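Why run this: before we spend reagent on co-expression, it is cheaper to look at a predicted model of the complex and decide which construct boundaries make sense. The entries below are exactly what would go into the expression plan.
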Amino acid sequence: MKFAVLAFPGSNCEMDLYNAIKDIIKEDVELVSYKKNTLEGFDAVLIPGGFSYGDYLRSGAIARFSPIIPDLQEFAKSGKPVLGICNGFQILTEAGLLPGSLQKNVSAKFICKTEPLVVNNNHSMFSSEYQEGQMINLPIAHGDGNYYCDQDTLRELIANDQIVFKYDSNPNGSIDNIAGIINKQGNVLGMMPHPERAVEAVLGSDDGKGVFQSIVNHIKSRGVIYE
Amino acid sequence: MNSVMDQTTEATPEQIRDNKLYKSMGLTDHEYGLIKDDVLHRLPNYTEVGLFSGMWSEHCSYKNSKPVLKKFFTKGKHVVKGPGEGAGIIDIGDNQGVVFKAESHNHPSAVEPFQGATTGVGGILRDIFSMGARPIASMDSLRFAEPKTDADKYFIQQIVAGISAYGNCIGIPTVGGDTAFDDAYAHNPLVNVMSVGLMDLDKIEVGAAAGVGNSIIYVGHKTGRDGINGASFASFQFDSEHESQRSAVQVGDPFEEKLVMEGCLDVINNHSDSLVGIQDMGAAGLVSSSAEMGSKAGGNGMELNLDLVPQREAGMSAFELMLSESQERMLLCVKAGHEDEVLKVFADHGVNAVVIGHVTEGHNYKLMHHGKLVADVPVDSLASQAPVYHRESEMPEHLKNVDTNQYQPKITNPTETLKEMLSQLTIASKESIYETYDTQVQTNTIVAPGSDAAVVRVRHHDKALAITTDVNGRYLYLNPREGGAMAVAEAARNIVASGAVPLGITDCLNFGNPEKPDQFYELDQAVMGMTEACEKFEAPVISGNVSLNNEYDNIPIYPTPMVGMVGLIKGLDHITTQDFKHAGDAVYVVGKTEPGFNGSQIQKMQTGNISGKLFDFDLDYEVKIQKLVTAAIQQKLLNSAHDISEGGLITAIAESTFGNQLGVDLTADLTVADFFSESQSRFIVSVPQEKQAEFEQLVGNDAQKLGKVVDDNHLFVQANDGYFDIDVDKAFGIWKGALSCRLK
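The model came back. Tokens follow.
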């Protein structure tokens, strides 16, 4: 199978994702420029962290108008997996592919550290490798990671089991300790923690491998390439 | 068009001479005379005086420090490029080079802490990627006064926020550094930034502009009125009036720098046949980068058309365009006929790039503005032929007739003294600072901030780089020569404790006014001490930076030559951290404990001051101890190793318990006071039971067994005249919370 890693001006985790897929998950992967307008031939799309367009104006707000975005929206509609990490999560909310938004951390500071997470839903295509309720350690590195949505949306997220990862001890003020959510269809995941930074024990944790392995298993179990 | 025109709104050459206007730009009567009588043989115009003031500032010309810098040990079999280029390069095998340099941003940070810090990070990164290297890690060495007022706290927080904002955005991990607090840095903080890059050795670029007809290409941000003549500003000393100098500070844009970096690395890696040279526009902006490139190519002539320079504001004068220090700009020399190829690369990266001039016949540096020739000077007169001063040196008063006795700590309750020590800001955890830095981006950080040295792996190879910054200005204040040697030695101890072997150093020489003999003495002596140590450790100086005139109302800072050292770890299984790993492991102190109290943290803590003769230091013994620890690590005998420095042995023991919340049960033939000695050449290490015999055989009498690691979360250390007794989590809480509490 083949992953696309999108690269926007100011993305800075695209190579980390690329290396994680290539060296550790050992699947095909290609960097795709924000200027492209096709995602043909890819089985899954990964949107990396960083500071697209400097995060000036609002995180993800400018990247959302890139040429690749309409195709990303189509790709998502087709049901194939889309994963946005950190700035990628912010871009997904700005592009209307996920509900809610990411606000400034309550501390008003950037925070970089490894946080314990709870796997809240292990039957998504991004989390099937984990046990429900399993504690995993993933690094966070963000200034705007404080997830917010209105109460109706939150009720819906809970009712549809869309909350995939929760913080064990909330580092940024996110509503309901939310660290990662999927869309209603279940094929678009946005998460603030960085699974690609936790794929090798030598870097402190390999708990993040499960996210990518889940995607691979999902694609391969289908045994078909989407139309 | 043959005569050099004067711009109408500016002072005339005669007015400059008669009213000595050059003085306000930082040139002396003597220097003005040189320009007028020896270089140009005519009166320089306003623009030309500006060019010389920038290029002959200490910041660009090193005119006061050059004779001292020549003393540095710079050779070594692995040195590919020593001082002189954007950054130095050391061969680490496999056709790879490690590139590193440090730079100070003290003066800008003093007037505008956030932007001063951001542009410090941006500047050093440009030095790294202009060599053709991709930056892989940064470090920051910070010196502040003890925060007392809300303004002090705001100031510190803004510096940290600036580093965080820039480094995080551009995606280069800030993996560590060092932060110390002393009122010697009140009004004149130190913000030193070090960056490390990695490159293929067949891709080295130099900052030279050769070949008549080749094009000079301007890349990056437009030029504005920010930071006009900042190099001269940085070479002044501060006084109570310095608030008015705010306009000399630049503003950083990490997003633009990221695009510029990717564009430049693309040109260097994929279009090297088109590229002649590349240099960043740092201090003294366009004039410095272009004149240095011409001068390095052997004094090539160059002509620039300033009307082509991208400008952010209307009506900028030639002086402003040439001396602006607007950020995120690079200058390239590109082969004639290859311009479009290079311009297209930058366009693809969304970066502004434009041809602004050419390499010309002859040796003159000419500037055209609005169709007129506004400057015409020999290129070497700006760069390689800047004046050099041999300053007078005289031992400072405070070093004469010093008390040779060592301070005697007053300790009635050892545990209470330990608790007080752990809450000293220089000793306390810096987590509240470094947790705002992205330490992991690029996914190579194996040892993050908090241990002796940071360790960053070299992807796809079984090797890693250890990086540290160090210096204790108090030691240098009491003895600049020994203190300088100690700064290098401590950096090397950090590198060795992490499992690496030192490769080389960079430095930021932060000192006072070199025109004052007692302060020049400190600079000169410190460099001699550093170079002696570098030679012993076979760690040459490959790059560096000088920041002089660090004074406020004529009171200088402590002499503070920041040492940034990089070491190589051959084999990831040699990586060692400071934390005790397993209960039952034996704890040893390697190296002799001597009375080392003058200049120590405990002297400062108990008397509010430092004084007396600095304790003794034996460089040969230091080297011997470090080699023993390296051997022990390479023979896989150690589970942890930690350098003993500020706060002494007991502080190092406590810090080693924190990471894994393990306790210790130790006994030593030392007094309680000895546990706070800062005598050099010591490590605290832990050894698994089955390796003890082998370890003891290796170290002989150079290590003493103190006891063992225990799993009851309790630190107990018996001395001859008392004991330390505290729960690890309690000690940890004091140490961890002290700084964030004081900054609230």
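Chain A is about 25% helix and 25% strand. Residues 209-222 of chain A form the longest helix (14 residues). Bring this page to Monday's planning discussion.
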